[in-house]
Each structure stands twice: as C-alpha cells, then as structure tokens.
Amino acid sequence: MCLSIAPWPNPLATLMPSWTLLAFMYWNIALPHKVSVGTGFITGLLFDTLIGSTLGQNALTPQKLSRLAAGLFCSVVFSHHEALVTVD
C-alpha cells in the first residue's frame, strides 16, 4: 500500500500498476486457504481509508480478483497434478 501512495513523477505514475492488488493477488495464489474474498474486502477498505476515498469504493475489486486467482490456482494445481499422474 505504501507504493500506491508514494509520490511518483507523472509519466511514471500513469504506467504504474496497482501494487496493492498485485500483492494481494500473489498472496491469494500462494496461500489460498489463508487469503480469500473476506481478506480482499478488508484490503479494499484499508486502501480506501489510506487514500481517503469513500469507503467501499475499492473494496469490490480485490474480491473479484480473489475469485479470479482462486480459479487460476485450481487450474494450475490440477494441471500440475495431471502432469504428474500421466508421466510414465
């Protein structure tokens, strides 16, 4: 979250990703049993508080990313599992 509120030069700021969402998505894929939709909602509320916007404005995006990351995690785990099973 600190990288999201740090002052950046204008040309760089337009190309900068949402560091909070990237970190959240990484941890959601790495630890899906600990980081979930509820964690995404709380992360969004904390981000709203940090940048001073209306509460709930950014809370929906991490929730949707959590669902996307969970689907990605399942597809990666099952494809890896199938690769291990089919190797003779």
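The record above closes out task 2.4. Task 2.5 opens with a second protein, given below.
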Amino acid sequence: MTQAFTSSMEEMIKRRVKEGNFSDVLPPKETKVTMGDEGTGEQDLSQEKNKQGLGEVNMLSALYKHTLETLYFMYYVLLGLR
C-alpha cells in the first residue's frame, strides 16, 4: 500500500460518510419507540429486586446445560449410536 492509495481511500470514506452513502451488508433496522399504556412515555419496568443472585442464576444455567448434555448422551447410548 502506498501513501497515495491510503489517501485516496481516506478521501473516499470521508466523502461517503458526508453523503450518507454506506454500502452496509444489511440495511439498518428502524426501531419504533412506543409509549406505555397510558401514553405518558413511562416504561413498564418492574421495581422488584430479583430474588436470585447472579451466582445462583449462573449455577442454575450451568446445571441446566449439564443436565441436557447428560440426557442427550444417555439417549444416544441407549440407542447405541455412540
């Protein structure tokens, strides 16, 4: 790569940004902002604290994954596929 090539690429990028001409793989999605049921703009968020701590949530997630893997393994062993 030469300095001239790099400069021309930078100029092309600056021009495309200024024009808003992006060649994205996927066009950006338009998101709609909705208001609450009353139309006041307030979000419906729960004010209650989660009863499980992060450690417990992670432990249950790992246990669930391990249990599924064990069940799949036992299923294949019983069918004689492994």
